[in-house]
Design goal:
Elements lengths: L2 H23 L7 H20 L14 H6 L26
Helix pairs in contact: 1-2
Length: 98
């Protein structure tokens, strides 16, 4: 596992813990629970791929996914998902807006 992947797995595990905590404490609105569960499943899958050495491969073609795309959305499953990327990625909160 390279340095980027090690950093990524730490971030994914942290996000996994945050989502599991939210689901356990039911801090989110009811309508968000299915979304959180879907995201949690994608995170678990990405972590498993990292551990198995299969991270970064398109599930449809088997071709490698671009590294910059994986940095934006580490739970991406195929190159086709990048067509709808704006619907999936998390936007950082810019402190200048606060």
């Amino acid at each position: 596992m390279n340095a980027m992947q090690e950093e990524l797995i730490l971030e994914l595990r942290k996000t996994q813990e945050e989502i599991e905590s939210s689901l356990k404490n039911k801090q989110e609105n009811e309508w968000m629970i299915p979304i959180l569960k879907d995201e949690l499943a994608d995170i678990i899958t990405a972590i498993q791929k990292l551990e198995d050495g299969k991270f970064g491969q398109c599930e449809m073609s088997g071709e490698p996914l671009p590294e910059n795309l994986l940095k934006i959305m580490p739970t991406i499953k195929s190159s086709r998902d990048s067509e709808n990327l704006e619907h999936y990625y998390r936007k950082p909160i810019n402190s200048s807006f606060l």
